[in-house]
Design a protein that fits this description.
The chain is elongated and about 55 Å long. Helix content is 26%, strand content 36%. The protein has a 3-stranded antiparallel beta sheet with strand order 1-2-3, with no helix packed on it. It has a two-stranded antiparallel ribbon with strand order 4-5. It has 1 helix and 5 strands. It folds into 2 domains: 31 residues, no CATH class; 46 residues, no CATH class. The longest helix is centred in the middle third of the chain and has 23 residues. It is of the alpha+beta class and 88 residues long.
Length: 88
């Protein structure tokens, strides 16, 4: 981890496209501004962790759904296929 000291208004450059500016300090709270290209997503750490957890849960659900055994039932001449749902 790189640790830097900055004063109000000073910046940190990350590569050619990302700038972080120290905007304000009030007690223990620091306000920063982040300039980044539109294709770069920027999230607070706790929000990013939640997104990652939700993505993992969605991927696990899809994996379980895709692997679920298929059972065949018939109603008259019509064949029905149903995915057996697994309960947690």
């Amino acid at each position: 981890m790189l640790i830097l000291t900055r004063k109000l208004g000073e910046q940190i450059a990350i590569g050619d496209d990302i700038r972080i500016t120290l905007l304000d300090i009030k007690g223990k709270h620091v306000r920063i501004g982040i300039e980044a290209p539109a294709g770069v997503t920027v999230h607070r750490g706790e929000v990013y962790r939640l997104i990652q957890e939700e993505n993992l849960q969605a991927a696990a659900f899809k994996l379980n759904r895709d692997r679920a055994p298929i059972s065949q039932g018939k109603i008259g001449a019509l064949s029905l296929f149903k995915i057996n749902e697994r309960k947690p």
